Amino acid sequence: MSVSLKPSWQRLWAAQNNRLTAAKLDTLGGLLWTLTMSGLLLRAALLFRKRTSLPTARQKLTLRNLELCAFTVVALFLLIRVDDLIRLYDQASDRWWLDDALLRGHVFALAAAALLFSFAKPPRSIWVAGALLMLPPLATMTLPEVFGLCESCTGRGRGRAWRSPRRPRPPAACWP
After folding, report:
1. Is pLDDT at 41 greater than 60 in this prediction?
2. I need a surface site. Which of 26, 46, 137, 144 has the fewest CB within 10 A?
3. 3-state secondary structure at position 156
4. pTM tops 0.85
5. What is the C-alpha to C-alpha distance for residues 24 and 82, in angstroms, rounded to an integer?
6. At what angle do helices 98-120 and 124-142 cross, to 10 degrees?
7. pLDDT, tens only, 96-129
8. First CA to last CA distance, the chain
9. pLDDT in tens, 148-176
10. CB-based burial of residue 43 (10 Å sphere; 0-12 exposed, 13-18 middle, 19+ buried)?
11. What is the 3-class SS of 23-68, one letter each residue?
12. Beta carbons of 141 and 106 less than 8 angstroms apart
């Protein structure tokens, strides 16, 4: 006697979370959702601006924030998901190196922080705190050798910021 179970297509796709095709489709679906919500925010702001009465100063500020939020959400989504897709692609093609992933993660995190700071427009003390918190990742990115990230992994000395797909694996001395 044999028993077999054929899962529904939803469960089948849910079980493929580490496959590159499924990750791309998931990212595309999330991007479409984010673009739709951002488009609705922009449409609502446009409809409010077309009213016959003039908006007050507070309403103008709120409308400006809604419009900025629509663009910021899309850019933030792309920053987060592109980093994940690059990591999955590198792992699938057996080119994933921890050193590169750490450096690239710092770049995407700093870009996301800069994007959020530019949207929020916090007071000066928060900017100073953010700048101080950005010092460790910047130090890691500029001096990877000091933090145990080898020189050959970052492409330093060869005129390239990132490794090319044809570059051979770094020497074993680079890995802890």
Report:
1. yes
2. 46
3. coil
4. no
5. 10
6. 160
7. 677 677 778 888 888 888 898 888 888 999 989 9
8. 51
9. 766 555 444 443 344 444 444 554 444 44
10. exposed
11. HHHHHHHHHHHHHHHHHHHHHHHHHHHCCCCCCCHHHHHHHHHHHH
12. yes
Cβ 105 vs Cβ 83: under 8 Å: yes
- The amino acid at 66: L
User: Which tokens is 34 given?
Assistant: 């984010």
CB 150 within 8 A of CB 143: no
Q: Is the pLDDT assigned to residue 8 strictly greater than 80?
A: no
Written as one letter, the residue type at 53 is S
- What value does the mean pLDDT of the chain take? 78
Please give the backbone phi and psi of residue 74, each rounded to the nearest 5 degrees, phi first: -65, -45
The mean pLDDT of 88-92, rounded to a whole number, is 77
| 74 within 8 A of 115, measured Cβ to Cβ | no
